[in-house]
Amino acid sequence: MSARKSILVLDDSPLVLGIVRDALQNEGFDVVVASDLRAFERHVATATPDLILIDVNMPEAFGDDVGAVLKGARKLTVPIWLFSNMDDKTLEARSRDAGLDGFISKRAGVNVLVQRVQGILGARAVS
Fold first, then answer.
1. In the chain, N or C: fewer CB atoms in 10 Å?
2. In Å, what is the CA distance from 79 to each residue of 59, 69, 72, 75?
3. Does a structural domain hold residue 126?
4. Which letter, b or e, does each residue of 45-82 get, where b requires 16 or more Cβ atoms within 10 Å of its Cβ?
5. Could you give the CA distance from residue 9 to residue 26 in angstroms, rounded to a whole number?
6. Rounded Cα gap, residues 117 and 61, in angstroms
């Protein structure tokens, strides 16, 4: 039996974190949320998730910069995707320029988020 896939989500909105966590947990994923860089850093230091979703507009730093550091300086191989309300062209450029794996628009809604995560991680989560 396969292990449940884990996802780490960084976003400064408690509402977004709650919706995303609930939607992905309902599909069988293990989800850890962080609302600031300190909490996010603790999670990254203690566990390796199967996927990281990062909001771009954070109070402490831009999410694409955080992702670039994780991929570049820290050599993290986990898929890192931007997750933001920005338009798709901007998200695509920021993701590419930071060397990240892709982006998911918050504008597309929670059902699209779940579908994209399932596609990224290769299938439905294990219950």
1. N
2. 23, 13, 13, 11
3. no
4. eeeebbbbbbbbebeeebbbebbbebbeeeebeebbbb
5. 15
6. 24
Residue 1 lies in a domain: no
DSSP-derived pairing of the beta strands 102-105 and 6-10: unpaired
- For 76-110, the pLDDT digits (tens) are 899 999 999 999 999 999 999 999 999 999 999 99
> Which range marks the domain in which residue 110 is found?
6-120
Please tell me whether the overall predicted TM-score, pTM, comes out greater than 0.70 for this model.
yes
CATH of the domain at 29: 3.40.50.2300
For 102: left if phi > 0, alpha if psi spans -120 to 50, otherwise beta; the answer is left
CA angle, residues 72, 13, 18, in degrees to nearest 5: 100
Asked if residue 13 is part of any domain, the answer here is: yes
Query: Residue 123's pLDDT band (boundaries 50, 70, 90)?
Result: low
Pair of tokens at residue 56: 């771009």
